[in-house]
Design goal:
Layout: E1 6-8, E2 11-14, H1 18-29, E3 34-37, H2 42-45, E4 54-58, H3 59-67, H4 71-74, E5 79-81, E6 83-88, E7 94-98, H5 99-102, E8 109-113, H6 114-127, E9 132-135, E10 140-145, E11 150-154, E12 159-162, E13 164-167, H7 174-179, E14 183-199, E15 206-211, E16 217-221, E17 230-239, H8 240-247, H9 251-262, E18 269-271, E19 276-285, E20 289-290, E21 293-295, E22 301-302, H10 310-330, H11 338-366, H12 371-386, H13 388-399
Parallel strand pairs: 1-12, 2-3, 2-13, 3-9, 6-15, 13-21
Antiparallel strand pairs: 4-8, 5-8, 6-7, 10-11, 11-12, 14-17, 14-18, 14-19, 15-16, 16-17, 19-22, 20-21
Helix pairs in contact: 1-6, 1-10, 3-10, 10-11
């Protein structure tokens, strides 16, 4: 009978999604040994049917991916967002942000397919194999914890321990459940239909968000197709009960619905990837830490996609954790001790609560057709458009450059 393996490392990351892989990259680039485990094999995660979404990477978040050593490999597949246009239904009032005047001449962000982002992150941790070990598929048999380490025992008997374990295993986090941490949840009774579309006219690097009574309809610029054709991704929010009927439409009828939503500004449109749907809800953990364990990304918080800030919020977790781990190791301190965990909770809790609140209010404010509220929000859009300092404040919010930020997001050394 073969002897079970034992692995001890600095940091154990449970969950190899986009956020977990990004954290493995930033730690590996800093020369910190870590193990990242995930239950799904990479080949499964790279299939188009696994995840049909795109991700908006804010200007600040690209600095995290640069620190992870992966940004230069992503850039050819990223479409910059140079303009943002926000409209409330058929109202003549709207918001227009121009990166030349409102974004310090930097893009507000970039759009990339999740599948491509995941592929580049996988390649990146292969490059960092001196410090990063990736084990997938990995089925956890049980969690373990001692005085100086926490870890897991896998189904094959492999035991992995570290002074600090990170729960990056999503909304249904097994790490969070093991810690006994409760969550507050809110079902929005909405689902997002996502797919990629081809269109006749150039999007000119503009992201457009139309607020509708059923929820926002976002059009996000993508890189051109190889033959020079133009394409964008959509996030089409509808009431949950209507989504099944929409997805059951014929290809022609689905495209006709799309054309109605797009209007004429991009010419003729048709979908070029299989439409998929994702239920929308809010989740927030009552605390982000336990003894020698920290939760991050959707294991700790999940928000409405109305402002496209979900992954960006998670990458701020990556930045904060990386900086705290590096600082504690440089000082010879215990990276799984209470001091680091308290600092992490203090650094991230306020930001995530604020963003959860903002997206929740925006969704409630704009996902209705009440006349009095519509008048109020249209006046608000018009006011922001006409007051440059206020407009610039919201532009910096979109870029992820407001509030208390980790050093990594201020281009400072960690």
């Amino acid at each position: 009978m073969a002897k079970a393996k034992y692995i001890h490392t600095n940091v154990l990351i449970v969950g190899g999604g986009l956020s977990g892989l990004a954290l493995a990259g930033t730690l590996g680039e800093a020369g910190i040994d870590c193990v990242c485990i995930d239950r799904a094999p990479p080949v499964t995660q790279l299939a188009e049917a696994y995840d049909g979404r795109t991700t908006a990477i804010s200007y600040a978040s690209h600095l995290v991916l640069r620190t992870a050593g992966v940004w230069d490999t992503l850039l050819p597949d990223c479409a910059p967002i140079l303009d943002i246009r926000v409209a409330d239904g058929n109202s003549p009032l709207y918001l227009h942000f121009d990166s030349e005047t409102d974004g310090d001449k930097n893009p507000f962000g970039w759009i990339i397919e999740n599948r491509i982002l995941r592929h580049r992150l996988f390649n990146n941790i292969k490059r960092l194999k001196k410090h990063v070990r990736h084990i997938a598929p990995a089925e956890i048999k049980k969690f373990i914890r001692g005085k100086s380490a926490a870890g897991v025992v896998l189904k094959d008997g492999t035991e992995i321990t570290a002074p600090l374990m990170i729960g990056a295993d999503g909304r249904s986090s097994a790490v969070r459940a093991w810690l006994g941490i409760d969550v507050k949840t809110l079902d929005y009774q909405q689902s997002a239909i996502v797919c990629n579309v081809a269109h006749e006219l150039d999007h000119e690097s503009a992201a457009v968000e139309h607020f509708r009574p059923a929820g926002p309809f976002a059009v996000l610029p993508m890189t051109d197709i190889a033959n020079g054709g133009h394409r964008s991704s959509i996030v089409w929010t509808e009431h949950g009960g209507d989504v099944k009927d929409i997805l059951s439409l014929s290809a022609e009828d689905f495209d006709a619905r799309l054309q109605d939503l797009f209007g004429p500004h991009l010419g003729e449109v048709h979908h070029i990837s299989k439409p998929m749907s994702y239920p929308l809800g809010l989740l927030h953990a009552e605390r982000y830490t336990g003894d020698r364990v920290a939760l991050m990304a959707e294991a700790a918080h999940a928000i409405h996609p109305i402002a496209g800030q979900g992954l960006n919020l998670s990458l701020r977790d990556v930045a904060a954790l990386t900086e705290l781990i590096v600082a504690h190791l440089r000082c010879g301190l215990d990276i799984g001790g209470g001091a680091l965990l308290r600092q992490y909770e203090a650094a991230r809790r306020g930001d995530t609560l604020l963003m959860a609140g903002v997206t929740d209010v925006l969704n409630r404010l704009f996902s209705n057709n009440l006349k009095t509220i519509r008048v109020f929000r249209d006046l608000g859009l018009g006011m922001v458009q006409k007051i440059p300092p206020l407009k610039r404040y919201f532009a910096r919010q979109a870029m992820g450059l407001s509030g208390i930020m980790p050093n990594m997001l201020r281009k400072e050394q960690i």
